[in-house]
Each structure stands twice: as structure tokens, then as C-alpha cells.
Amino acid sequence: MSITYKHKLIGSVSLAAALLVAVSPVWVAQALTDTSTVTVAVGSSITVASADSVSFSVTPTAAGSQSSDDDTVTVSTNSTAGYTLRISSSDTTNVLTSGGNTIAASANTYTVPAALTNNTWGYAIAGGNFDASYSVFTNVEGSTTKWAGMPVLASLQTIKTTATTASNDNTSVWYSAEVNSSQPNGTYTDVVTYTATAN
Question: What confidence tier does 30 reach under pLDDT thresholds 50, 70, 90?
Fold first, then answer.
């Protein structure tokens, strides 16, 4: 009986050895992973440009004569909310000046534009409260086109608002002056500022 017992014990050892060989391939290098989130904050940018000057002439008459011309304001922005364009004189006055002589800004407003009166000047944006369209004209008497007086720098007037990105988006800004023969001759100027802000 002891021989049989030993035989069984040897069988057990042989089986254990076989199992050890079968399990050994499990010991391999493991690959571990992790993740990282990359975040890039892209800020808004905006550019604004214009023709830099608008020039036209008007020959006064007793009843009053009027001329006009336009400027193109170009805005680009990557803001997905668009931009706001505002206009004003570049300082605290809004008169056209030639030496000691002036042409006053019209008393008309952006909300209620109207025809110019003698010896005043103004601007217009086609559509909305203004006329549907504008064109260049010279020495016209009795024009009924609608114009607004230029606001001073402290009172910027919004003239356009958009709601998406823009690439070279153009806005025509029209200017006009009406004078009668009481207005002294000369070259009258004022500097206008266009302010574009990303929404």
C-alpha cells in the first residue's frame, strides 16, 4: 500500500509541473494608457479701414446748392457674434472748418434723418430710416435726400450691427453739404472716426 501511495504522490507532482509550464506565458509586459485634453482659446480680432478721405465741391446759390459723395468702410472679424460699427467726429466738435469759418453739422438725427438746410452738412447710410439708395450728385438745388448730423466723439452712433464672422464686409457711408451764397468760400474739413467693435 505504501507503493501505491508513493505512486499517487509522484503523479501529483508531475501534474503540478505541467500546470506551471502552461501558466508561465501570462507574465508579459502590460501597456497602460492615459489621455490629455488640449484646449486652445482663440481670441476675437477685428480690422477696419476706409478710403481715408472724401472730397467734393459745391457751388453756392442764393437758394442753396448741395453736393454729395461716399466713403467705403471695410470690416473683417473672426468673431462668431459679428461686429458693431459706429461713427462720430474725431473730437468734441462736429463742424466743417475753413480758417475761422464753419459749416455746422445738421440738427437731424440718425433716428430721424431729413433734408439738409442751408449751410449744414451730414451723413447717411442707405436703408432703415434713411433713403433706400444714394448716389453722387453735384450742385443740386432742393434735394429731399435724408441726412443726419455727425455726432461728436463722446456720442458714437451705431450705424451697423452684424451677427456672424465677416471678411471684407463693406458699408457705404454717404456725405453731403448744402450751402447758400452767404457761406464764405474755402476748403472745409472735419475728421470722422469709424469705430468697429467685435461683438
Answer: confident
The C-alpha R_g of the chain, in whole angstroms, comes to 39
Residue 192 near residue 150 (C-beta atoms within 8 A)? yes
Measure CA of the first residue to CA of the last residue in the chain; give whole Å: 98
Instruction: Report DSSP state, residue 154.
Output: G
SS3 label, residue 17: helix
Q: What does the pLDDT look like over 91-138, one tens digit per residue?
A: 999 999 999 999 999 999 999 999 999 999 999 999 999 999 999 999
Q: Which secondary structure element, helix H or strand E, spans residue 47, and what is its range?
A: strand 46-49
- What domain range is 140 assigned to? 46-198
Return the number of other C-beta atoms located less than 10 Å from residue 29's C-beta.
4
- For cell 484646449, name the residue: 39
Whether 3 is in a domain gets the answer no
> Is-contact 143 71, C-beta < 8 A?
no
**Is 65 inside any structural domain?**
yes
Tell me the C-alpha distance between 180 and 182, whole Å.
Answer: 5
Q: Residue 189 corresponds to which amino acid?
A: T
Q: Give the three cell numbers for residue 46.
A: 477685428
User: How many domains does one find in the chain?
Assistant: 1
Find out whether 103 and 95 touch, Cβ atoms under 8 Å. yes
Task: List b or e across 140-155, with b for residues whose CB sees 16 or more CB atoms inside 10 angstroms.
Answer: beebebbbbbbbeeee
Cell of 48: 477696419
